[in-house]
Structure formats: structure tokens, C-alpha cells
């Protein structure tokens, strides 16, 4: 009986997905993104960023609204100068808490038109961008259900970029998309977590987009790089002693063992491990 139920749900979702793609409706889903700090000094998720998935069923953008706000200001020479002036005044008045702060480093855009995913992220204090083919993730859908953000969701599992993911998708929202690079299910992904729980996305709000904006501000200034090279560079920022000045002697205790500066890849690594 359960297998019939899931099959009917998937069939209805596929039909609705075509319909929503034709209407071009835009929705916003907000997510809490939990992960370890990028200096890899903790194996548990101890940082939470607020991200938004903006999607119309055909193309999407996953981004931090706070980070985008700052990038939009700094995207022009005039805005960059005014923002620096504002920050200087705040520091002089000892009001640094008034300065807007970034909340997450990356943007992800997906497009069914060219079947590409574009990633924008930072390593070694440099902004980089790269593209990769739209993934054909081999999801295994089950009949397990859970309520997320007031929507009934089905569970699916898959291996992607070196990690095993468990996702919960809502057939009631027939958009084949989700947080980060996750996609390919007959319903929007409202929760996803990798094995071990080090990286997790949980939806906490859904609404119709009022003024959808899919551009990436100043994207022409982001340097091109290959995906594997980006993650190797970020790891090198940890492992190359010349990049870690000022943290010499920093000791981390994990499961009774001492580590210097950062935890090894076997304990905690980035969200993508296949680099």
C-alpha cells in the first residue's frame, strides 16, 4: 500500500512540475545552514547561516541575503567607497556593531536552460567562480515521511560530491530543486543532511517571491577556477604553515587526542570531499 502511495505522489508531482515550470512562478524558501567552522577546529556543526533558495522551477539562486546586501553595495566603485567610509566612521565612534556583516560565503545558481550549476565562493581571501554540469543525482526514494515547515515530505537518499545525503522533499511544492546543489526530486527539498550530520539544511519559511532578483552582483570580478582546484586551495590554506601565521601552538582535543591548528580530513572536511 505504501509503495502505491509514493508512486502516485511522484506521478502527480512530475505533472505539477511541468505546470509550474510553464507558469514561471517564483518562490522563496529560507533555510538554516548548519556546518563546522571553516578553520576545521570543530568536528560538529557550530555555525548556522541563513540562506534563501529563490526558484521558478527552471532556474534558481541559493544565497545569503545579508552577504548579497553587502555585495550589492560594493559592486560599484561609488558604493565600495561609501561603505568603507561608513565602516571607518563606525569604528571611530566605537559603533562597530552597526556595520552589516556577511552571513555565509557562497552563491549557487542552477539553470535548466544550459544544464549548468554555477558556484561563487571564497578561498584565500579571493573570490572564485566555476561551473559544472547539472547533476543527475541517483536518488533512492522511500515511503518514510516527515513534516518540515508544515509540509509532508518523503525521504530520499543519494551519494553526491563524496558524501551520502538524506533529503526530505515536499510533493506539494512541485519544484525539482533544493538547497545548495541538491536537486532532482519530484518536489522541493526542505531538509537535507549528510551522514554524520556535519552539514545540514533545514527550511524554516516558504513564501511567494515579491521582487525576484537572480543576478550575482559583481560576478565578473570573481576569478574563474576549476572545482577541484578551489577545494584543494581552501584545504591548503589550512595545511600550509605559511598560511596559518598567528595560530601556531593552537591545540584541539578531539576524542582524547591532541591535534595542532586543525582537525584532519578523516574527522572533518568541507561539504565536498571529492577533490
Task: Offer a concise description of the structure.
22% of the residues lie in helices and 35% in strands. With 275 residues, it is an alpha+beta fold. The chain has a domain at 2-64 and 103-227: outer membrane lipoprotein receptor (LolB), chain A.
Description:
A hairpin with a 5-residue loop joins strand 10 (188-194) and strand 11. Strands 7-8-9-10-11-1-2-3-4-5-6-12 form a 12-stranded mixed beta sheet. A two-stranded antiparallel sheet has the order 13-14. It has a domain at 2-64 and 103-227: outer membrane lipoprotein receptor (LolB), chain A. The protein has 275 residues and is of the alpha+beta class. The longest helix is centred in the first third of the chain and has 22 residues, at 2-23. 22% of the residues lie in helices and 35% in strands.
What keyword list fits this structure?
two-stranded antiparallel sheet; outer membrane lipoprotein receptor (LolB), chain A; 275 residues; single chain; 4 helices; alpha+beta
Which CATH first-tier class of the domain at 2-64 and 103-227 would you pick?
A: Mainly Beta
Nearest-integer average pLDDT: 89
Q: Report the principal-axis shape.
A: globular
Question: Portion of residues in helices?
Answer: 10-25%
Largest sheet: 12 strands, mixed
Global Rg: 20 Å
Query: What share of the residues does DSSP label as strand, in percent?
Result: 35-45%
> How large is the count of helical segments?
4
Instruction: Outline the low-pLDDT stretches.
Output: 1-23
Secondary-structure-based class equals alpha+beta
Number of strands: 14
N-end to C-end Cα span: 42 Å
CATH superfamily of the domain at 2-64 and 103-227: Lipoprotein localisation LolA/LolB/LppX
Amino acid at each position: 500500500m505504501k509503495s502505491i502511495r509514493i508512486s502516485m505522489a511522484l506521478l502527480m508531482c512530475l505533472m505539477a512540475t511541468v505546470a509550474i515550470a510553464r507558469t514561471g512562478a517564483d518562490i522563496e524558501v529560507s533555510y538554516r545552514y548548519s556546518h563546522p567552522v571553516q578553520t576545521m577546529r570543530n568536528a560538529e556543526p557550530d555555525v548556522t547561516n541563513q540562506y534563501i533558495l529563490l526558484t521558478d522551477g527552471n532556474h534558481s539562486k541559493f544565497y545569503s541575503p545579508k552577504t548579497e546586501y553587502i555585495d550589492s553595495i560594493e559592486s560599484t566603485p561609488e558604493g565600495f567607497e561609501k561603505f568603507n567610509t561608513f565602516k571607518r566612521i563606525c569604528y571611530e565612534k566605537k559603533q562597530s556593531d552597526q556595520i552589516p556583516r556577511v552571513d555565509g560565503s557562497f552563491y549557487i545558481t542552477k539553470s535548466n536552460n544550459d544544464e549548468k550549476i554555477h558556484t561563487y565562493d571564497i578561498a584565500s581571501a579571493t573570490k572564485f567562480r566555476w561551473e559544472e554540469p547539472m547533476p543527475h543525482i541517483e536518488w533512492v526514494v522511500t515511503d518514510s515521511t516527515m513534516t518540515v515547515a508544515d509540509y509532508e515530505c518523503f525521504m530520499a537518499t543519494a551519494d553526491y560530491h563524496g558524501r551520502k545525503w538524506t533529503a526530505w522533499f515536499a510533493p506539494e511544492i512541485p519544484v525539482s530543486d533544493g538547497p545548495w546543489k541538491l536537486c532532482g526530486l519530484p518536489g522541493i527539498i526542505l531538509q537535507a543532511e549528510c551522514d554524520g550530520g556535519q552539514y545540514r539544511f533545514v527550511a524554516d519559511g516558504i513564501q511567494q517571491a515579491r521582487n525576484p532578483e537572480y543576478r550575482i552582483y559583481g560576478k565578473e570580478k570573481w576569478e574563474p577556477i576549476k572545482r577541484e582546484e578551489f577545494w584543494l586551495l581552501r584545504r591548503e590554506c589550512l595545511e600550509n604553515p605559511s598560511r596559518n601565521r598567528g595560530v601556531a601552538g593552537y591545540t584541539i582535543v578531539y576524542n582524547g587526542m591532541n591535534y595542532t591548528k586543525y582537525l584532519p580530513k578523516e574527522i572533518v572536511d568541507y561539504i565536498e570531499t571529492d577533490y
